[in-house]
């Protein structure tokens, strides 16, 4: 009996974990502080007077894997980036008379999760946080960019999802320390002057516009890249002779792709294993080192990509049967949660992107700025949104007018009780505001997911109150209620046909 109860309790916990994992991740930095290490601000005292979010896509900051079913979901900074970061810096660098006020323009802040290829234990993971931001000071009514800081912080562990607040805080701290150690006070070049309009303008994400040799479209020089800087500057080490062993990769997904192994050639004409390399180029194709192997790099638009094996944590089958399958346990029937833990599946192909500025590697995200830009630039690039009107208890269930809008466009909809509308929304690069006319809490804002239907529910306020609600709804809940709506509509149509 005791063992049966343990099994039932474990199943219940896993079910709860799975359900909890389906929601988005809201990250806050309330428990984090700026870590300056041994750096002091006595020589160049400053505080952060303002944070400007210059990311072109100002919503989610990446994709994480939650729960034992490895559910992919978007991560957000709770309440918005500007308020989160301003509060973070206010606690550690408070406004001080006589100190220099510094404006932070955040060009990039992103997180990612993958399997830890250094430690192939069942649940080992790696989480990263990447940041790029400009440090701006005001002098005689002019704004000057005096420093650009970047950082890439990695964290290894069993569950990196719960530690992204700490990883982000460390990346912010690294940037601040780099700035504090720089000679930024000596920079007074008018070339670095910007206007208020330029300060607020989203940063250009087209990395082809960056002044980097590797982006200039010239020859890819043959040699070894020992760092990301070597690749950025198209300056591989070609002083030592090297060769490349090639053999076809196994598996249907890898037809036509060779497994390449570079080696150094010694003076004695011996082959020496190449170690600690970021990648290499054979003169026509560049390769990146990832997961103890080398994979060809390709450039698509403004991004850099490569196909490699799916990360190690994705190999394991945590659920041998679908969650929710009834299973007999000690005479009782419980809902399945975990079957076949730790059973490795064949390694599949996964597309990865690496950031040319920070070196951050992440799984290709269909909701990233780059992906949404590419989708929008092609015909048929839309996000699907379905909103339905759910009858409320104690409400009058009057029809309402709902507007789906961005800064430039609006689509009006009239919803009656137990009705729904589905639209295709073409602006993928800005938040969608769903607003109900004449309501005290009129709008719900979100970034539609381009990979699935986005379900929204409108529920009217009870009579005598003014708190109507628009909320996102999970697919299972929405589909269940939509079936009720459609069944009621079919029943009404049959009644009308019979009356005629």
Query: What ranges have pLDDT less than 50 throughout 5 or more consecutive residues?
Result: 1-22, 314-343
- The counted number of beta strands is 30
Intertermini distance: 64 Å
Main sheet properties: 7 strands, antiparallel
Strand order of the main beta sheet, please?
Answer: 9-13-14-15-16-21-22
SS element count, helices:
7
Morphology: globular
Radius of gyration: 27 Å
What fraction of the residues are assigned to beta strands by DSSP? 35-45%
Structural class, please?
alpha+beta
Q: Mean pLDDT, as a whole number?
A: 80
**Can you give the helix content as a percent range?**
10-25%
Overview of the molecule:
The protein has 7 helices and 30 strands. By secondary structure, the protein is an alpha+beta fold. The radius of gyration is 27 Å and the shape is globular. The chain starts with a helix and ends with a helix.
Keywords summarizing the entry:
seven-stranded antiparallel β-sheet; 30 strands; disordered N terminus; 500 residues; alpha+beta; five-stranded mixed β-sheet; single chain
Provide a brief overview of the structure.
This protein has 500 residues and is an alpha+beta fold. It is 19% helix and 36% strand.
What is the secondary structure topology, with strand pairs?
Layout: H1 2-21, E1 25-27, E2 46-53, E3 62-66, E4 71-77, H2 81-92, E5 100-115, E6 125-139, E7 142-157, H3 164-181, E8 193-194, H4 196-200, E9 223-225, H5 228-232, E10 242-248, E11 258-265, E12 271-273, E13 279-281, E14 286-290, E15 293-300, E16 303-309, E17 316-317, E18 326-329, E19 332-335, E20 343-344, E21 349-354, E22 361-363, H6 369-377, E23 383-389, E24 400-405, E25 410-415, E26 420-425, E27 432-436, E28 443-446, E29 454-459, E30 469-473, H7 475-499
Parallel strand pairs: 1-4, 2-5, 23-29
Antiparallel strand pairs: 3-4, 5-6, 6-7, 7-8, 9-13, 10-11, 11-12, 13-14, 14-15, 15-16, 16-21, 17-20, 18-19, 21-22, 23-26, 24-25, 24-27, 27-28, 29-30
